[in-house]
Amino acid sequence: MSKGLLITIGGNIGWSESNPILMEIFEKADEFDEGKPNIGILPIASQEPDKSAKRYSDIFKKLGADSTVLNPENRSEANSTEIATKASEVDAFFFTGGTQLRITTLLGGTELLATIRKKHDQGTLISGTSAGSVCMADLMISFGESENALMTGVVELTRGLNFIPNVVLDTHFTVRGRFPRLVHVVVENPVSLGVGLGEDTASVWDIEKKEFRVIGSRNIVVIDGKNITHTNVSEIKADEPLHAEGITVHILSDGCAFDLAERKPWFPENHH
């Protein structure tokens, strides 16, 4: 069986059952339980998890899905047989927004995460929005505002859940002006592809096919450091400005796709 897809959303999803991103999540869940899929909602990142879980439960109900809330309050609960069993019975996973470090520090190394990973290996969809997207990659931005992000020592990184290798994700990308932040990360980590997700826009990842496609109302910006020929990041001190040559930027929108192996975009008008 093929690995499941991953849907990473840039935040502020349009709240309508006709939203193509939400419909995509429902349809992928429906492939496992045709007619009445059960979507596991993980509001771990949120400071108001009950409110966040209800919001998504209500919208998925309108689409025709049941939901199970998976919200361990501590690592002991995340390691419990009870919550791992609940997770094993759902047809898709959805991580809400909030603070990404809450997800990685609570779930990392637990039975709940092991169950989610096993289900994903068996074909189950994992999706998330905002912080629930950022944590999906192997490298994760944990702190750093964009205002001074082209100075060294401003952006802090940590490990994500590693469902998407060699990628770093950022969300609310254009609305919050996060281009400098993601450029900084890519310059320091050119092996990682930077993917900036616009609001109400998602990348649908097929890891086995080494590609993602774009759905939604705004843009996705891809920042590639593979062809960087010069940078000063290894010579300068904290709070000094960096420079770099050879950064490649692609701007994608609904219907576009990206080949991760070739590091090349495909556009609707030439993608046959």
In short:
The chain has 272 residues and is α/β, with parallel strands linked by helices. It has helices at residues 20-30, 49-63, 75-78, 81-88, 100-107, 111-121, 131-134, 179-188; strands at 6-9, 38-42, 66-69, 92-95, 125-129, 137-143, 156-159, 164-170, 193-197, 201-206, 211-216, 220-224, 230-231, 244-245, 248-252, 257-259, 264-266. The strands form 3 sheets. The protein has a 9-stranded mixed sheet with strand order 3-2-4-5-1-10-11-16-17, sandwiched between helices.
Architecture overview:
There is one protein chain. By secondary structure, the chain is α/β, with parallel strands linked by helices. The chain has one domain: Rossmann fold (3-Layer(aba) Sandwich). Helices cover 26% and strands 28% of the residues. It is built from eight helices and 17 strands. The chain has a nine-stranded mixed β-sheet with strand order 3-2-4-5-1-10-11-16-17, sandwiched between helices. Strands 7-6-8-9-12-15 form a six-stranded mixed β-sheet, sandwiched between helices. Strands 13-14 form a two-stranded antiparallel sheet. Helix 4 packs parallel to helix 6. The chain is globular and about 55 Å long. The two termini are 26 Å apart.
